[in-house]
Amino acid sequence: MSTGQKASPTSNNPLLHNKLMPPRLNSNVIRREDLLSRLDQGLSRKLTIVTAPTGFGKTTLVSMWIASRPFSSAWVTLDQNDNDATRFWTYVVSALRTLDSSIGKTTLSTLMASQPTSFQTLLTPLINDLARLNQVSVLVLEDFHFITSKEIMDGVSFLIQHLPVSLHLILIARNEPSLSLPLLRVRDEMMEIVAADLRFDPKETETFLQTAAQINLSPSAINQLLQKTEGWVAGLRLIVLSLHKRGNAAEVENLINSFSGRDRYVADYLIEEVFKSQPETIQTFLLKTCFFNRLTESLCDAITETNHSAAILEQLERDNLFLVQLERRRDQTWYRYNPMFAESIQHLARQQLGEAGVQALFEKASRWYEYHGLFDEAVETALTAKLFERAIMLIEKFIEIHDLSEMNTLGRWLENIPQQLILLHPKICFTYAQVILYSTDRFAPATAIRIEPFLGAAESAWRTEEDHGRLGQLLSFRGNVYWWQSDFQKAFEFAHQSLKELPEHDVFWRGNSLLIISYEALNAGRIRDAQDHVLEARALLGAAQNIFGVLAALQILSEIFYWQGELEQAEQLNQQILTDAVGDASMLDDQGIASLSLADIAYERNDLEQAEQLARRALELGQQRANEMLQVQATIQLAHIHSAKHDLPRARELLKTLEGKIQNTALLREIQNAQALFSIRANDISGLEWWVKVVSVANQTILHLKKESEAFTLAHLQIAQGKIEDAIKLLKFWHEDAVQNGRVRSQVEVLCLEALAYYANSNLSKATPLLNDALTIGQAKGFRRLFLDEGMHMAALLQATLSSLPNRTLSLFATTLLHSFSPEVTSHLTASSSTFQIEPLSQQEVRVLRLLVAGLSNAAVAQELVVSTNTIKTHVKSIYRKLNVNSREEAREVAHELKLL
Prior knowledge:
By secondary structure, the chain is mainly alpha-helical. The protein is built from 47 helices and 8 strands. The strands form 2 sheets. Strands 2-3-4-1-5 form a 5-stranded parallel beta sheet, with helices on both faces. The two termini are 31 Å apart.
């Protein structure tokens, strides 16, 4: 069960719109027609990737291409903080909406709703919107090398795979992204431009020097310069900046000789040749603004405490001093430094301003971002400057807007704040505990240990403040923590405590606690109480839009239906879970549990192949998620399947191997119970004294249904040992408990065991009515394996009572069960004279019967199964003979009675 993580809709927290602005082209940029033509050719493909180190003109080239072409374009400049999937796709969709405001409404709504979803579900409506664009448009993702999140990469891969012809994607990066590029290359769906393509040739170098520096160099000087810079555009720009100060050819030659291509990014060169050549006012401005990714007039005024930043920014951009202008938005012009240039000045700034001075700059910037509602940037700058108290205050505001929708971002921020400071802020503590649980391995004991200090601090504070509402939320969440640790008794205790504190209007956390309490009732065997609680929980969690909780409620409800013998309803709910459980990795738990539940249902119907397939899927997901409970229960189910296939050694070996891997004592006890049952089936009961002692000791931590399962195994052992009276006494208690609490499945199982106990004691007169009751319920509910798993003793009892069964329905059902036993089980039985014996139907006969029952004619059945009508007639005759019927109506009646379909 996945109990819910809290998430509420986000408000319209403003985006940093300058991230959606392409840089403005400089007037003296060199047109590179061959590369522009290659970009044109790329339009016929899905993707263009432009990769090269810093300073090779990647962004300039793409900006030039977009500016010179008639198509519409959208632009996103990424940074290291965009590795949160919610943030990444919000920026991408917001950029695409500049093409057409109707694009991405559903996707953006999904992102704002904060409910986790798979990238397929998130991006499919976006792709459908893009397909409706009337003309080809281009989306540019600049600095894509900052993206390392696998979740985002998977989403981008999905987008590329299904990209409509109306959109072309361009990725600008310093290195090749981790996408499925080989496949795109093979399919010729990608255009690539790399560093070798971007290097200037002699002609471009000459043009660049003439345009940018108004200087003519000899061919030999140009060749020497190319050898020094290897066509690196940023290196050439450094030379140009320095050439402005040189008046004659000799000085130019000396400068070219002094330039080192071995270390292009060396800060000393930039400082000596570029920074120190600027006026003092410009130097001061550079020192104070070089730390910030994007700049605008008012931000720079706030940082520098001046009012003339606009003029300086315009001058720097006009002088081409490694500053590029972005588009103008909302009466603000935004700029950004070349990263290489900014990093070199940052080193000098730290030397001249000192750490305290640099910290003061970040604090001013953080306050500016906060004032303008840009909380993400406000937090980032505060953390960079180690202004932790300020960062905590801003994070609290961020949580009010986003709650847990950007969990990765919250986790990254809080990891950088000293724990002793976090412990002073209960709201932050509670949030951090949730982030830890839902973003790490929730099953690991280390996770609970890591969470505890934060929960302890928050609980202490809220008890002191008598803040009952928040305390109730925390107690409910504690129930979740213990749930995932399989400490159910504590989970139940905290859920009950929380309901005493929570107000009626807190539907999220009350629903969460009721969910846990419904599981408590279920495992206490109180099926009706469990159903009441889970239906209320589902209603509350649905109102809270908590998909995690709704799925968990469906899981519990399906289990309730299973115990009530409503297999079809249980099956439908689990199929719904498999459909809806798409999103983040935690939903793999839901998929695994639903798969296991479907395996249980298929097993009960004696569809062993389907049961095995589903149980293996559940085991794989359990292993993938390190979910020990799912692994144990799936392996036990696989062992039962092997036993049903008469491979008891394989069943026992599976459990023996599993036992050595599991540390949880409750799960070990489940394994040991299954091992004891298989030992009894193998008639290997001499070494089970230890197990009897274990289950005979009173243990309040063992769930009621687990005790029942152990009691049934113990009854098997007592019958095998000839301790019939002990078995009957034990079973009588559990029979009454099952009837009283509505556990229909348990009722059938205990009836079978009681009947077998009396039969083993040669008391057929008492065994028969018990078996009749078991058959009556089992036939109506579709139970099969409850009878078949009892093996040859049940087969013998069925045959012994067959002639005395009170009606045709039970006789047919008993006969069907007898035919379902393997020949090894029934070989010792004498042939029965019952008129209701049937032979098993073949798979094709079952298909034919299903279509006949649906009302199709022989000809229609033949067409459906792609065979001749004569073949169908032959199958129909065989079906009638095996079912001992003479018409379709009788065949339909028998099929429904025996649940053959």
